[in-house]
Each structure stands twice: as structure tokens, then as C-alpha cells.
Amino acid sequence: MADTASPIAMPDQATGSPEASETPSEGLGLDGVVISVDAMGGDRGPAPVVAGLAKSAAKNPEIAFIVHGDKVEIDRLVARRKILKGRVVVRNAEAVVQMSDKPSQVMRSGKNTSMWSAIDSVRNGEASVCVSCGNTGALMALSMVRLRKAPGVNRPAIACLWPSRNQGGFNVMLDVGADIRADAQDLLQYALMGASYARNGLGLKNPRVGLLNVGTEEHKGRAELKAAHDLIADTAPQANYDFVGFVEGGDIPSDRVDVIVTDGYTGNIALKTAEGTAALIREFLTNAFKKTPLSRIAALLAYTSLRRLGKRIDPRRVNGGVFLGLNGTVVKSHGSADATGVSAAIKLAFELAKTGFTERLAARVASTAVPRESADATSEKKSSE
């Protein structure tokens, strides 16, 4: 049964109404959807973060912010941007999680950091989503400790939007770095979470889910992939997604699939490879059009098309990996994000907050959970065949 077959929304069906998911922020003086932002964790400091908040605030009057970090510096940056007046509350945090810090170290002694404070605003119900440009490992570790895993979730995942040939322009891929390991049950949960994200983030009623493998034939791949193939296929009718089977690396940006499921080791390598390739193509095009006077003229004639292409492959405009499977939504922005990148991450956080995404995802995973013993038995059976 499709999500839209009944007037009663399924657990992860977007209703288009923000009232159900907007978090009350009594005492803060903020209206609308409140986003908690770690201003200090990125490579460039708080300046591009505040600039990104201003870009988002100018585009959307419903957004307000709790910003965490050096209060003196952040107050100075906020004061320069009139659009943020009355829409920002600054929380002082004396310490910063550095990119070189180990997650275990941050969990032991990071209570006074801007990252910890930003996550706690979601935990305490002051904000709907946390956004940070900081250390990915530390952010995931703190998110798991402070927000806890949603019922039925064994391993949270990081999902990213991948430019594709689909009509909406993007596919969802997960996991892209939360955990390098994933057994058959984990991959099933990734499929459920990815499908829920596609419904709420991309507006797809029946997302097509594919499992990344070295080939599309059912006999290929590791034992856990074969077991996951059967689990994901068996759960598809109940969870309202279409399972297309195994997909290959070339299918990631294709229009054959909407959600690509894989382990964090493979997903992160694929993501970093794609980002590096996109940067290389931009560099090659720039050098090619500067090479001769004729090529410079050609660049002028093709300026509009080149600008459109540049926007399409610009990683800043799809900035934001979403941590899925927690009792709260966390969006990880690139550490080197500029104002455009931060604004993109804020936009994604706002859209997910409006749909009540976290609650729908948790309900979906809980309602279709497969006991781990069953998944293990399926995996053992596949191994012996």
C-alpha cells in the first residue's frame, strides 16, 4: 500500500505542515523553526557560519537560530547583519572541538565545547535540528551519547545527496562514513532510513532502493550483501519502497535508483572520489577555456551554460550529510564550507524539521524492524550456499 492511499499519514509521510514538528522555544524569544548551530568547529571559524545564517535568514523568515561558540566574537559578527536581529540567541562555549581531536577524547572532556552545547539544544527541546561544520567522528560520537540511537537502530548512518539524472536532480546515498562495518540487518535499516529521507527530503512517495555491489547479478558480492538483498526485498512491500536489487558504482548518479545503500567504508570512498573528480573537471574546463584567445571567446559565448553546469556540480550547494537513526536530527556540513555551503546545510535542516522527519523515521524503522537473530540466520544460510 502506498503512503498516499489513506488520509492518515504513514510514519514517514510528509504532510507539508510544520506545526507538528516545530519545537517550542519558550524563554528564548525566537519564533519559527529553531536551528542549533555550532559556529566554531569549521576550518574557517565563525565568520562564514554567521554569513551563511544571514543568507538563510534572508531567504526564509521562518528560521531562527541558537548559535554556540565564542559569544563576544559571534555577537560582533551578528551585529553587522541586520537580517539576523531578533532571530539569533548566542550561547557562550569556551572550548572548540578541533579537527584533530579524537572522538573518545571529546566524549570525556568536551562538555564545555560549542559542539556539545549545540547538540544539547536539540536534546533539551530548544531546537529542531543541530548543524555543525566540525569533526565528523566527534560529532557522531557526541550525537549518539547525547541524543541516543532511535529504537531498533543498531548503527546510525550518514546520508548525503548525490547529483543525478533523476528529475529532482539528486539521489540519496548512505552510509557515507558513520561506520565502516555493516551487516545484513544494518543494511536493511539503512534502506528504511534512506527511503524515509527520500520521501521527506525529496518528496518521493515510493523511492527506488538499490544495494551497492560489484555487479548486478544476484550471485555476486559478500555473504552479508546477499543476505541484505533478501531482507531488503522482503521488507519492501511493507515499507513502501521499490527494491531494484544490486546496483553498481555507475548507477549512483543514474535515474535507475533513488536511494543507494552501502557500508560507510565504501560510501565514504565513493563520496570523496566524486568530490575530487568534480573539482578536477572544473579545473580542466577552466584551463581549457583559458588556453587560447579563441577558447576565451568560446568561454564568453558559453558563459550561461558553463555557469549552469558549475552550479549543478558545485558541492557547496548540496552541502550537508544527515545523521540518521538518532533521537534528533543532526546535519554535518563540510569543514571548509563557506557562506553558500553553510546556507545549503541550514536549508536542508529546515526542510527536515518542517516535516517532523526524525519522528517519522523512528516510527518507520520500529514498525518494520527485523529481529537481529533472523538477519543473522539468513546471513549464515547464504554463507553456506
The description of the largest β-sheet is:
11 strands, mixed
Mean pLDDT, all residues: 83
Distance between the termini: 33 Å
CATH architecture: 3-Layer(aba) Sandwich
Number of helices: 13
Rg over CA atoms: 21 Å
Structural class, from secondary structure content?
Answer: alpha/beta
- Count of folded domains: 1
Query: Which spans of ≥5 residues are poorly predicted at pLDDT below 50?
Result: 1-11, 13-24, 378-385
What do we call the CATH homologous superfamily?
Isopropylmalate Dehydrogenase
Number of strands: 11
Quick structural overview:
With 385 residues, the chain is an alpha/beta fold. Helix content is 46%, strand content 15%.
List keywords for this structure.
13 helices; alpha/beta; disordered N terminus; disordered C terminus; 385 residues; 11 strands; Isopropylmalate Dehydrogenase; 11-stranded mixed β-sheet
Write up this protein.
By secondary structure, this protein is α/β, with parallel strands linked by helices. The protein has one domain (3-384): Isopropylmalate Dehydrogenase, CATH 3.40.718.10. Helices cover 46% and strands 15% of the residues. It contains 13 helices and 11 strands. It has helices at 46-59, 71-79, 103-109, 114-123, 136-147, 184-202, 223-239, 264-290, 293-301, 303-313, 339-355, 357-367, 372-384, and strands spanning 33-38, 63-69, 88-92, 129-132, 157-163, 170-174, 208-212, 242-247, 259-261, 321-324, 329-332. It has an 11-stranded mixed sheet, with helices on both faces. Strand 10 (321-324) and strand 11 (329-332) form a beta hairpin. Helix 1 (46-59) packs across helix 11. The radius of gyration is 21 Å and the shape is globular. Residues 1-11, 13-24 and 378-385 have low confidence and may be disordered.
